[in-house]
Amino acid sequence: MVILGLILLIIGLIASIPVLTTIGAILLVVGIVLNLVPIGGTRRRVF
After folding, report:
1. Does pLDDT of 28 surpass 90?
2. Among 1, 6, 27, 42, fewest CB within 10 Å belongs to which?
3. Torsion angle of C-alpha atoms 18, 19, 22, 26, degrees rounded to 10
């Protein structure tokens, strides 16, 4: 998702299409947040 957002952001900036730039930025931010936040109890507990 991060890579797709980055590609869309770059294409939107080069082609000056604001819709692609906005979607790319949103996908980039969501992808980074999902990579940083553990979802579904993926935190490993060491006893």
Report:
1. yes
2. 42
3. -170
Q: Which token pair is 47?
A: 């006893």
Distance of CA 37 to the CA centre of its chain: 13
Q: Can you spell out the DSSP letters for 1-47?
A: -HHHHHHHHHHHHHTT-HHHHHHHHHHHHHHHHHHHS--SS------
Cβ atoms of 6 and 28 closer than 8 Å? yes
First to last CA, the chain: 34
4-13: long-range pairs with CB below 8 Å, 24+: 4/31, 5/29, 5/30, 5/31
The residue-averaged pLDDT of 25-35 equals 91
